[in-house]
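Continuing the batch. This is chain 6 of the set; chains 1 through 5 are on the previous pages. Same settings as before, nothing changed between runs. Recording input and output for traceability.
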Amino acid sequence: METINLGLQIIPKSKTQESYDLVEKAIEVIQESGVKYEVTPFETVMEGPQEKLMEVALYAQQAVFNGGADEVLIFYRIHARKDSGVSMEEKTEKYRV
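Output for chain 6:
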């Protein structure tokens, strides 16, 4: 399977937990997954096979629920190509300082 980019934004809602603390639970799952990722102010972008990234996204969702979220809004953005992989570097390399 070709490499894709998956942007994952999780917005937790909880009556008892801080949203940022819950988002950190999701980021911890991504960090521990071994996939390439980049945290941005609005979402975390991952790179790898689609099946693996969707699995990581589901584990991240569950971590937020396990952390105390009552509900979550989840937004996925996927960039895939028919005949070749997609990398984060090809889109951002010229902007890195």
